[in-house]
């Protein structure tokens, strides 16, 4: 199932509630499939966004599932609180957790899905042997830290290999791509095998966010990789 998750990183923060409503669609249909919240600590990435209080405010306002992308150090310590708060899926970076299996099990125990994210330069092999513990693999298609960057084309083989790995091992794993997703790049990422697409600028930096989401969903669905779902 193709899913579009707008990233609120570059939305109009002063009007956060309106910005969440803008992508929700009438009666919860036709809009975003989830909200992607980028948590940054100015250590793991050279930028600071927000932490748990803002994520709690987002959760209190929106009916959409929230996926928390944690670009923070020491995820083993900080990630569980995002599961307790009610995020549907919590995605720490592989580079920032020392015990990913224990963390995934803790997130599950707290009622959330567990994701694991890789920076562009981190090979799939870093997590291949523990993927069975996770519900989602996030492949960064820009260097994490900022919205509005161009998609790194050389990530395409990694997406393809990730899809092959998921297919050959029979894992029930969503494959999320994040960074530089536009109505053009989404076609190639979908062809390569991604099925959950984060889009910040492409949704929030246009007048009609719902039309942008519909266009992205259509482009991804049309170019959907045949992976037997
Ligand atoms: C970057 C974040 C992304 C970003 C996406 O570190 O993880 O979620 O906000 O923004 P766009 O779609 O503009 O690249
Ligand atoms: Zn993100």
From TrEMBL:
Establish whether keyword Zinc is in the entry: yes
Question: Keywords for this entry?
Answer: Carbohydrate metabolism, Cobalt, Isomerase, Manganese, Metal-binding, Zinc
Which Gene3D superfamilies would you find in this protein's record? Aldolase class I
Q: Which GO terms describe its biological process?
A: pentose catabolic process; pentose-phosphate shunt
Describe cofactor binding as the record notes it: Binds 1 divalent metal cation per subunit.
Q: So, what pathway does this thing act in?
A: Carbohydrate degradation
* Keyword Zinc attached: yes
Where along the chain is substrate bound?
Answer: 7, 69, 145-148, 178-180, 200-201
Q: Where does a divalent metal cation bind?
A: 36, 38, 69, 178
A Gene Ontology molecular function term for this protein is: metal ion binding
Give Gene Ontology CC terms: cytoplasm
What are the catalytic residues?
38 (proton acceptor), 178 (proton donor)
Provide the reaction this enzyme catalyses.
Answer: D-ribulose 5-phosphate = D-xylulose 5-phosphate
Q: List, alphabetically, the PROSITE patterns matched.
A: RIBUL_P_3_EPIMER_1, RIBUL_P_3_EPIMER_2
Q: Which cofactor does it need?
A: Fe(2+); a divalent metal cation; Zn(2+); Co(2+)
Q: What is its EC number?
A: 5.1.3.1
Query: A single Pfam family, by name?
Result: Ribul_P_3_epim
Q: Which family does it belong to?
A: Belongs to the ribulose-phosphate 3-epimerase family.
Known HAMAP family for this protein? RPE
The entry's function note states: Catalyzes the reversible epimerization of D-ribulose 5-phosphate to D-xylulose 5-phosphate.
Listed name of the protein: Ribulose-phosphate 3-epimerase
Q: Native species of this protein?
A: Actinomyces naeslundii
